[in-house]
Design brief:
It is built from eleven helices and nine strands. With 359 residues, it is an alpha+beta fold.
């Protein structure tokens, strides 16, 4: 693996950072957090359409940029840095990977250009899953993020099928749930829908490997988004340390404070390495893919919670207030640690892979 970023990759990262720093500034995020949907339409149109990032991993023949997981990780790090309140990860990663893994050529030609051009998607099936039987989809799916603003719902079923539904499909009910993380709203989906064969990716019951691959790749790339949130938490804390005076000195001059900042930095750098390694393994598509993704998610989820907790503590009283952004990152850290597998679940999956190698 080549771990050095190319000039083109650095250009993509800088373009994403410059754009999001302006378009997803704190006022934009605060407006979304306090809004009814937790979603910013203007930001989505610019990020997905004008910047073209929604199609980053979509093959060029289907209207995308035809790039890889490393480039996606670089963009996700920037969306995580600002807590972008848009279904970018759900659309550009989970939905795209599901279609690539299970769809027929006709389905790829039909669905991928829509996703690449900015059609919003949500992925249902990271927790409970509905059942597809005799052309009928019934049951519920929890923890479907941004489902309330999605145009397409990609559903992983209990019987190993992948189904793509339009959001206005008769019999589909979306219930937005109270959420700890208001920058990524969760919903419960209830299904009582008739499903045609053209709505099923591939053959019914044949998507077990595709579902597993989609969620594994999603877990690995989510680590990059989490790393971006950690970097913001450290940067904001360092800025605060340069301004806050206590006992006649800047608090950043106190040794204990500097030690905690150093510990935060070490966690972030290790997390970035793990996330980039997972992305590189996804692009190589070899035997290390699953291991790298499980390692990244397990480590980075724990590190994210630690860093955001320390950021609140080091901000003192202001860090505990609603007005400060520190709590938004802490809540994102807690919520993402339970989504697409907990750290313990990823460690267990890694242990099973290791044990299988020694069997």
């Amino acid at each position: 693996m080549d771990f050095a970023l190319s000039d083109d990759q650095r250009a993509i990262q800088e373009a994403a950072r410059d754009f999001l720093t302006d378009a997803a500034n704190p006022d934009v995020i605060r407006t979304a957090v306090e809004g009814a949907t937790g979603f910013d339409e203007g930001l989505w149109q610019a990020l997905a359409g004008e910047m073209g990032f929604a199609g980053l991993m979509v093959p060029e023949e289907h209207g995308g940029l035809g790039l890889g997981a490393v480039e996606m990780a670089l963009v996700l790090e920037e969306t995580g840095r600002v807590l972008a309140p848009v279904p970018f990860f759900e659309t550009a990663v989970l939905a795209v990977q599901a279609v690539l893994a299970a769809g027929s050529e006709e389905q790829k030609a039909s669905i991928l250009p829509r996703l690449a051009s900015g059609t919003r998607a949500s992925f249902a099936g990271t927790a409970s899953r509905p059942t597809l039987r005799d052309g009928k989809l019934t049951g519920t799916a929890d923890f479907a993020t941004f489902a309330h603003v999605a145009d397409l719902i990609v559903v992983a079923t209990a019987d190993d099928s992948l189904v793509v539904l339009n959001a206005d499909t008769p019999g589909l009910t979306v219930e937005v749930l109270p959420a700890l993380d208001r920058t990524r709203r969760f919903a419960r989906l209830t299904f009582d829908c008739a499903v045609g064969t053209d709505m099923i990716l591939g053959a019914p019951g044949s998507a077990k490997a595709a579902i597993e691959r989609t969620l594994t790749i999603g877990a690995g790339l989510l680590a990059a988004e989490q790393t971006g949130g950690m970097q913001y938490s450290l940067d904001a804390t360092v800025d605060y340390a340069k301004q806050r005076v206590q006992f006649g000195r800047l608090i950043g001059s106190f040794q204990a404070y500097k030690h905690m900042l150093a510990d935060m930095m070490l966690l972030i750098e290790a997390s970035r390495s793990a996330a980039y390694y997972a992305a590189a393994a996804i692009d190589e598509n070899g035997d290390e893919l699953a291991q790298a993704c499980h390692i990244a998610r397990a480590y980075v989820s724990d590190a994210y919670r630690s860093v955001t907790g320390d950021a609140i503590q080091l901000h003192g009283g202001i860090g505990f207030t609603w007005e400060h952004h520190a709590h938004l990152y802490f809540k994102r850290a807690r919520a993402t640690a339970s989504w697409i597998g907990t750290p313990d679940q990823h460690r267990e999956a890694l242990a099973q892979i290791i044990m299988k190698d020694f069997a």
